[in-house]
Amino acid sequence: MGFVIFILGLIFGSFANVCIYRLPKGKSIIYPSSFCPNCNKPIKWYDNIPLLSYIILKGKCRYCKSKISFRYFIVELLTGLLFFIIYKKFGLSYLNFVFDIFVLSLIIVSFIDIDTFLISDVIVIPGIFLGLFFSFLFPKIHNMERLNSFLYSFIGAIVGGGVLIFLAIIGKLLFKKEAMGGGDVKLLAMIGAFLGWKPILLTLFFASVIGVLISLILIMMKKKKVDDYIPFGPYLAIGAIISIFLKGYYFSGFLIE
Domain residues of the chain, as ranges? Predict the structure, then answer.
């Protein structure tokens, strides 16, 4: 069953690539079917098999031979692996379903943020309501009664957005420029809606630590300058994914529900 889940993840990863490319351009994610962005030729089904087609075609379009970004391969593989790991932790259950949707949303948002420095409202705003809905519909996500589960999720959304608004205000006062975008606020609110308020603190901790470490590495490699803007969305996503897998464990005296 794990292999089937992995393949399913690869397919959803392919869909994520469509969203990452089209949503920032305001294009439909349904029509037309996949096409080469360079020559606009429709991509046949046998050239659109996750992972395999990229390897067989050596990362190039069959028609115009233009290079296909390696990111397509990475997104498919990452989605497949995360779907598989979620399945191994939660089994074939509604938890698996909920967290697959959540992780898929995080992947799409993160790669759009890397490309455009923008968080997609099309994903995060419906995501906030979806997180609240799932917490009410499946209260065992937080191991609580239905009403408590919903309140835990609602407070998570409020705390998530509120913490980043507070940090944005402090950052602007200290550095005299925008330290946190409004998109990050909405993204953390979505994370809070899915995970609740306790994992929000954990998410911020891991996001900050990983963000600082990667930023220092990029600066040392001269890939970034000290005052360059670095998208924070992907780090929030990484922190949220770590928090998912820490559910049921104690962290600094808190049981991560």
Answer: 1-92, 99-257
